[in-house]
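Something for you to look into today, if you have time. Just paste the record in under my message, thanks.
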Amino acid sequence: MAIFPRKINGRFAMLSRQNNESIFLMYSDNVHFWNEHTLLLSPASPWELVQIGNCGSPIETHAGWLVLSHGVGPVRKYCIGAFLLDRDDPSKVIGRLREPLLKPDQEEREGYVPNVVYTCGALLRNGQLIIPYGMADYATRFATVPLDEVLAAMT
C-alpha cells in the first residue's frame, strides 16, 4: 500500500493491491481505516502479465500523479513501469507506459532473486526522475531519466 502525499478532495487516498494481481485506489476519512476500494489498473502488457503493483507513493507532477509500478511477467521477471493519474481525480488513468521503464539486464539476471529489478519509490529533482532500485536482491543501483521523456512515452 502507498498513501498519496496529500489529501485528495479532503480525503486520504492510497494505492493497494487487494487481489494479488491488480492495483486498487482507496479513500478514507480516517487514515487508520480503509474500507472503500475500486479497481484502478490490471495487467495489460506481456511484461506484467502475472501481476502489477505500485512502487512507492505517487509523485505529484505538473501533468498528474506519477506512479512507478512493478510488473511480473513470464518466468517471474520483474520490471519497473509507470503510469499517470489525474491530479484532481486519481481514479482517472491518463497515461501508461507500454514498455518497461527498467528491466533486468545481464548483470541483474543472476543473484539471490534472479531476473528482478524493483524499487520502493523515486524522487524528482531538477526535472530528473531518480530511481533507486534493487537488482536481483543482492545490490542497489540508481537510474535517472528526464521526467519529460517518461511523460512523453505514455499513451
The longest helix spans residues 147-152.
